[in-house]
Amino acid sequence: MSALRRPLTDVVRGWLDLNGPLLGPAFYLFESVRSYIEERKEAFDARFGTDTAAPVLGRDQRPGVYFYVATTASLIYEVIEALALPPDVFAFVDMGSGKGRALLVASEFAFAKIVGIELSPQLHRIAQNNVKRYSPQTQQCTDFDLRCMNVVDYAYGPEPLVLFLFDPFDRETLESVVSNLEASLRENPRDAYIAYVYPQFEDVLQASPILRKVQEGGPRWRPWSRYVVYATSPGSDGAAKTAAQRPGSG
Ligand SMILES: C[S@@+](CC[C@H](N)C(=O)[O-])C[C@H]1O[C@@H](n2cnc3c(N)ncnc32)[C@H](O)[C@@H]1O
User: Fold this and answer.
1) Any idea where the domains of the chain sit in the sequence?
2) More confident residue, 8 or 2
3) Which of 118, 152, 176, 226 to probe ligand 1 with, by most ligand atoms within 8 A of CB?
4) Would you say the CB of residue 127 lies under 6 angstroms from ligand 1?
5) Is 90 exceeded by the pLDDT of residue 25?
6) Would the CB of 96 count as within 6 Å of ligand 1?
7) What would be the CATH architecture of the domain defined by 73-231?
8) pTM of this structure
9) Which ligand 1 atom is nearest residue 123's CA?
10) Residue in 56, 68, 125 to alter for ligand 1 test, most ligand atoms within 8 A of Cβ
11) Chain segment 136-174, per-residue pLDDT in tens
12) pLDDT digits over 87-119, tens only?
């Protein structure tokens, strides 16, 4: 009986999977329309000559399906400003960086370096081109490090960290990311923040003994605009620190 039940559960899970054959195309259509509307409002690519807005649903490589959709630029600004940290000592690491929109926006802040980790070679190449094209006068960091690899294999550098995640992967991958981060921080204690947009698996962060929630924002009725921020060290809620600021933001 249980042998029969398991395949049925798998089938139902497949139907409910947003990257699956049933909901995948519907989700892709929804995200395409949403991205088109957002891009008309923000004109990010039109202003900077980049290629970040169009979603990509890829099925051509391990570990299977990947789905790229860019974070709205204004939301990335909001999240980084909400961190309220002095960016110049932090590495900004986008886990699942896609075409690099978050990397480009992060470069408007004086981070020590900006790292993008992306599984898809196609998206990685587009991100590399975008980084070359993006050079507004307001840019404060040009130290980019783009890697085409699985996030679970990424070894963190020695700097304090801001990890940025926009609904990039499944629960299992997020668990590996958090456990690698914990190991790295045990070995080399330093400040670390995880900014998680569209936090579907927030319980994984909640379960970490070294992380605590310090911020949340975005309306619940637009789950793709919701974000949470978790931090490690006791003094890292940022209240008394110099806020990250982009030029001209007041
Ligand atoms: C929703 S997109 C986010 C893109 C970008 N962070 C942004 O905010 O504009 C998620 C990205 O994560 C990538 N991804 C998924 N699983 C990954 C993994 N295990 N390692 C590296 N990248 C991964 C996907 O290919 C996709 O480009």
Assistant:
1) 2-68, 73-231
2) 8
3) 118
4) no
5) no
6) yes
7) 3-Layer(aba) Sandwich (3.40)
8) 0.86
9) 27
10) 68
11) 999 999 999 999 999 999 999 999 999 999 998 889 999
12) 999 999 999 999 999 999 999 999 999 999 999
Question: Which comes out higher in pLDDT, residue 41 or 63?
Answer: 41
209-229: pLDDT as tens digits: 999 999 999 888 888 889 999
pLDDT at 64 over 70: no
Measuring from atom 6 of ligand 1, which residue has the nearest CA?
Answer: 97
- Going from the Cα of 212 to the center of ligand 1, the distance in angstroms, rounded, reads 24
The pLDDT mean for the chain works out to 86
The Å distance, Cα 74 to ligand 1 centre, comes to 19
> Among the atoms of ligand 1, which is closest to the Cα of residue 96?
12
* Position in ligand 1 atom list of the atom nearest CA 94: 6
3-state secondary structure the chain: CHHHHHHHHHHHHHHHCCCCCCHHHHHHHHHHHHHHHHHHHHCHHHHHCCCCCCCEEEEEECCEEEEECCCCHHHHHHHHHHHCCCHHHCEEEEECCCCCHHHHHHCCCCCCEEEEEECCHHHHHHHHHHHHHCCCCCCCCCCEEEEECCHHHCCCCCCCEEEEEECCCCHHHHHHHHHHHHHHHHHCCCCEEEEEECCCCHHHHHCCCCCEEEEEECCCCCHHHCEEEEECCCCCCCCCCCCCCCCCCC
pLDDT band at 33 (very low <50, low <70, confident <90, very high): confident
Q: Kindly report the protein residue whose alpha carbon is nearest to atom 12 of ligand 1.
A: 96
